Fold this protein.
Amino acid sequence: MRQRIVRSQAAGLSVKDQNGQPDPRPGALVSAMLLGKGGVDVPFELRDSFANAGLAHALAASGFQVSLLIGIMLSLTRSLPSQVSFFLSTALLLGYIGLTGLEPSVARAGVMGLAVLVAITLGRKVNPLHSLLLAATLLLLVNPIWIWDLGFQLSVLATLGLLVTAPVLTKWLDWLPSAIAPLVAVPLAAFVWTIPLQLHVFGVVSPYSLVLNILTAPLITGISLGSGLSALAALVLPVGGSAIAQLLLWPTQLLMALVEFANQLPGSAYAAGTIAPSQVMALYAIYLLVWGVAGLHRRWWLAAIVCLGLVAIPTGAAVMSRLAVTVLDTSDEPMLIVQHRSRVGLIGNLSPEDAQFTVLPFLRQQGVNRVTWAIAPDLTTCHTEGWMQLVQHIPVQSFYFAPGACPAPKNSTLPDKQHLIQQIQVRGGQIHPLPLNQAMQLGDVAVRKVSQEPLALRFQIDDQIWLLIRGLRTASLEPLLPQLATLTTVLWWDGGKLDAQALSTIRPQQAIATRPPNDTAEAWFSAQAIPLHVVAQQGAIQWTPKTGFRAIAPVD
């Protein structure tokens, strides 16, 4: 049934993109707003754009769809006996929960909806808080693992906010027209109750999400209603479902355009940094205190100041005292991140996958909104797309690079270096060549490029002298050994072949290999009792003055 609905709506919303290729986004968006993203193959770009804009809930079936379904069924069965209306509504509700793939958020809303149906049938009132507690308890008894499911957590918190905070906000907004006040109060209440958890998990805040939620509320309501009608028609006649879905094309495209516009605004995704579980618990304790003590309702501004202090003061103190060097567990090109107070530097190259799934998430969790300097020691066309993805989200103040070469794939549409340079300059960054055998002082970090082929780059931060070596599979290190016979605290290389002579010349105190090294190198480190860290086996490796070297993101 789900596949029948999705195919019917995709056929009705079939359009072409700018390149003349089929665009699956409108159909996937309309289906996901009804069935949830768990039951629909939503393109990653669409999910990511809605999440960045603070509209991830639009792609998740939840209480809104359940409430809409129950309201429609109660209206259609109004003339029937209450018992008949109850069984018909319950059957449709259970069927809808099954269609969504039993997502935790939908199951929570379904249990609460069932409580409403029982109360209406028995002629009794429902205590919303009691039904929320009952729903959460029953679902966790059925599947305790859901307590760690982010969708379940956000669903419960957002619902709690709607129950305890939205009515108060609606009263405060009584100066607005009665139809507009709930459109402001509902997203504001959900935002307030979910932001601590979002900061703990993602460390990113969308400043425009509240306004965007208010503006798109009518569109989301209309599209959700139309998607439901299209689904019912598709179960009977797929052509009819496609015809109804076709009417949703313009509203859907308008919704996607608003999301894209919001994501292009300056500061659309502000990285505040992840907060500790203790901070999350303290914030929710203040929320509950304000909710439980009626006298504090009018002093909400005081609670807001305390909450901001709980987030801003520890985060600011951590940034001003931070000194860390991290080698990330990237799948393609090695990447190192230097953090010294508010200054952040990158050394390495980027593939699109590493930029999207490793480097950007790490920087956001650390609260980084601007990279002070970045070094691409052998920038090639194969790396420009990854750097483009990075600078589109986080500007780079100073970009240093030396040209490299790579075999470009056939029919390549990768951006060239000039496009990357223009993108960096448009966002206020400066471009510099990376000189050979010339010392550069980048804030508190001294950098010198010793060799291009094989790549050898030395940099110093605090009392640590790091040596990066890469490209040993295609070039010999032997001619460079006289230049490398100096003090080296940490050797960082890609895991390529290093013989005993080279290691004895460099003689590091610590070593980090991006990939597992050969047996000769591993045996040498073991014989010399020199710690060797392998990123591919241990996960991301970080050095700080207090903790030394440790794995901060273990490999699964």
In short: The radius of gyration is 28 Å. The first strand starts at residue 15 and ends at 16.
